[in-house]
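Action item from last week, closing it out:
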Amino acid sequence: MEKLRALETPSWRNCTFENVRVGESLRWRNSALKKVRVGETPHLDKLRAGETPRWRNSALEKPRVLEITNWRNSAFEKLRDGETPRWRKSVSEKLRVGETPRWRNFALEKLRVGETPGLKNTALEKLRDGETSRWTNSTIEILRVGESPRWRKVRAGETPRWRNSALEKLRTGEAPRLRNSALERLRV
């Protein structure tokens, strides 16, 4: 897949689809789909009222209302409401300045809307300065924006702590950090 240029509407740069120019709506140029002219709302078969047109194949799931067109193949992750559609292949292209990076590896859990994912490792991510630390391993719970990283199944009111025998419990007031040699520490 090609990289997206600044201000372009994300488009599927696959041999079956044409590039989308700046300001244009996504257009599906497959022989099985109707061509869309500039300014038209591309629409596919059997769209419900209020839905944004999207690819509807037997291999793809039906989208929810207000979702932006997204590829629902097993090789790609689902997009949540309000997300910008982008190619979710295991070997993803780098995103340019201003785009919301979302690296969705199969071994990692999905990120929620508004999260700033920063996958830098196959299992765990290295955090950049100012990022909200979050562990996106399948064994660790997804964090919402502003949450402190915490181990899965932390009860309400508890201080986040890593509950694995391989990880050390946190003392009151400590910044949560993984204490296993196989895992990287979080920068404060």
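Closing note: Residues 1-188 have pLDDT under 50 and may be disordered.
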